[in-house]
Design brief:
The structure is a single chain. This protein is α/β, with parallel strands linked by helices. The protein has two domains: 1-84 and 162-244, P-loop containing nucleotide triphosphate hydrolases (Rossmann fold); 93-160, no CATH class. It has helices spanning 47-54, 77-82, 100-107, 119-128, 130-134, 145-156, 175-190, 202-208, 226-230, 233-240, and strands at 7-18, 21-32, 36-41, 60-67, 70-71, 85-88, 163-167, 194-198, 211-216, 219-225. A six-stranded mixed β-sheet has the order 6-7-8-3-9-10, with helices on both faces. Strands 2-1-4-5 form a four-stranded antiparallel β-sheet, with helices on one face. β7, α7 (175-190) and β8 form a beta-alpha-beta unit. The chain is globular, with a radius of gyration of 18 Å.
Length: 244
């Protein structure tokens, strides 16, 4: 796969094995700088494995992952995160016994205590996700599922990131909270962030996505512009078995 200088993240021929299972079969993917790329596909297509492979949580057995021109395939997960990549896993990874404030402080690498956190950025996060401010001193484990999802994203953006990777941000959320989440990602994109989102909600994908890649059986079987896929019902049906 040819990559352009405008691509912040590129995967070339990536294979991933988990134990005896061969999950990714030569994945090629390009995530352009400053765009929001949607990764779609049926359950079991390999989307989460792909995100975990990018983050070094699972090691690619073949192929390469490049970020900002650097080969990050052999790096450990903490090294990858230090390149200014944030990852929100599907299970959100919230520290239930810590307060909302403490969860954010852990992710704010430039702050040792709460007073050192970027106040203007916190106010922006509170405007995006009012529940984060409302439950600031509450244990994160007491939040609802939707509030935990907001906290997980807030934690990932508590400092500016070059790349934000989120696994199923709209899963299980009420429509009003989905609108909140869409607004948050749109604002991040306008601010110059690059985003890679795995999503099952096709309306969410249509409203936000610039580019789209569709996975099936551990491969990317379609890549293009989200708007074109959104207008092609036959292609949606053949790739995903459903329509927008």
């Amino acid at each position: 796969m040819s990559s352009s200088n405008d691509d912040l993240l590129t995967l070339n021929g990536v294979h991933t094995h988990i134990g005896a299972y061969h999950i990714l079969h030569g994945v090629d993917l390009a995530v352009p700088r400053g765009e929001l790329t949607m990764l779609l596909g049926r359950n079991g297509a390999g989307k989460t494995t792909l995100l975990r492979t990018i983050m070094g949580l699972w090691r690619a057995s073949q192929g390469s992952v490049r970020f900002a021109g650097q080969d990050i395939t052999p790096l450990a997960t903490p090294q990858i995160a230090r390149l200014n990549i944030a990852y929100v896993p599907e299970n959100m990874g919230i520290f239930a016994d810590l307060t909302v404030q403490e969860n954010l402080l852990l992710a704010a690498r430039s702050a040792r205590h709460a007073a050192q956190m970027d106040e203007a950025r916190l106010q922006w996060i509170f405007q995006l996700f009012p529940a984060v401010e409302k439950f600031w001193r509450h244990p994160a484990g007491k939040l609802s599922g939707g509030q935990k999802q907001m906290l997980a994203v807030a934690r990932a953006i508590v400092e500016p990131r070059d790349l934000l990777i989120v696994d199923e941000p709209s899963k299980g959320l009420a429509p009003a909270i989905i609108d909140n989440m869409i607004d948050a990602f749109a604002q991040l994109k306008r601010g110059g962030a690059t985003l890679l989102l795995v999503e099952q909600n096709l309306d969410f994908a249509r409203r936000l996505g610039d580019g789209v890649a569709v996975m099936d059986n551990g491969r990317v079987v379609h890549a293009g512009r989200m708007a074109a896929l959104a207008q092609d019902a036959a292609l949606q049906q053949s790739l995903l078995g459903l329509s927008l």
